[in-house]
């Protein structure tokens, strides 16, 4: 099972439509998880033509900042607890990374949002900064933003892929390019922005 990961698309604030490369790169996924700040839920309709979509409610999705409040949508919740290929996956918009102990820790955030399960994977967004960490046995993935990477001007950013075909979940960040995307070694590569 392959899951497409998005966050912080900010459509139409960033641009009228999402980069076509995003749709091309996600064409073979089984599910799409969007970690919030969608802004216009019509984007979810386009993504759902590829695969089922689950989205977290972002701080910018509630009509603040002069944005149009979006209608209720069953695909959007504050957080989701999902199970795919026997892996427990949490999806939300914000978690405290970097952590600020003792109160703002991933462990406490997981207990608050997902008190009944020890997550295998936690997908989040909000920062626009791509990141993959393993914290307390949980794979934490922020796919970054395909439109506003690192909160900069509109430009080709990042998406993520979550591979659940192994004994442990594996995540990858993909840098969008003019012709598609390339694997992005976010820890060791010089960022293009």
Walkthrough of the structure:
This protein is mainly beta and 193 residues long. It has one domain: Purple Acid Phosphatase, chain A, domain 2 (4-Layer Sandwich). The chain contains three helices and twelve strands. The chain has helices at residues 20-25, 42-48, 106-113, and strands spanning 2-6, 31-34, 53-56, 76-77, 79-84, 87-92, 121-123, 131-135, 138-142, 158-163, 170-177, 180-183. The strands form two sheets. The chain has a seven-stranded mixed beta sheet with strand order 4-3-2-1-10-11-12. β6 (87-92), α3 and β7 (121-123) form a beta-alpha-beta unit. The radius of gyration is 15 Å and the shape is globular. The mean pLDDT is 91.
Identify the notable features of this structure and list them briefly.
12 strands, 3 helices, mainly beta, globular, 30% strand, Purple Acid Phosphatase, chain A, domain 2, 5-stranded mixed beta sheet, 193 residues, 7-stranded mixed beta sheet
Rg result = 15 Å
CATH architecture assignment name: 4-Layer Sandwich
Percent of sequence in beta strands: 25-35%
Largest sheet: 7 strands, mixed
Q: Give the helix tally.
A: 3
CATH level 3 topology: Purple Acid Phosphatase, chain A, domain 2
Within CATH, the superfamily carries the name: Metallo-dependent phosphatases
How is the topology of this model organized?
Elements: E1 2-6, H1 20-25, E2 31-34, H2 42-48, E3 53-56, E4 76-77, E5 79-84, E6 87-92, H3 106-113, E7 121-123, E8 131-135, E9 138-142, E10 158-163, E11 170-177, E12 180-183
């Amino acid at each position: 099972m392959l899951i497409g990961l998005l966050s912080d698309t900010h459509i139409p604030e960033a641009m009228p439509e999402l980069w076509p490369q995003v749709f091309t790169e996600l064409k073979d996924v089984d599910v799409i998880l969007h970690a919030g700040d969608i802004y216009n839920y019509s984007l979810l309709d386009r993504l759902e033509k590829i695969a089922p979509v689950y989205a977290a409610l972002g701080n910018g999705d509630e009509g603040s900042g002069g944005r149009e409040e979006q209608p209720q949508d069953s695909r959007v919740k504050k957080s989701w607890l999902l199970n795919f290929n026997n892996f427990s996956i949490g999806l939300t918009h914000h978690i405290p990374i970097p952590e600020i102990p003792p109160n703002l820790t991933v462990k406490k955030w997981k207990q608050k949002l997902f008190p009944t399960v020890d997550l295998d994977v936690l997908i989040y967004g909000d920062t626009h900064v791509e990141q993959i960490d393993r914290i307390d046995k949980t794979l934490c993935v922020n796919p970054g933003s395909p439109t506003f990477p690192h909160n900069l001007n509109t430009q080709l950013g990042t998406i993520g892929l979550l591979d659940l075909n192994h004994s442990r979940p594996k995540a990858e960040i993909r840098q969008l390019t003019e012709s598609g995307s390339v694997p992005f070694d976010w820890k060791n590569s010089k960022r293009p922005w």
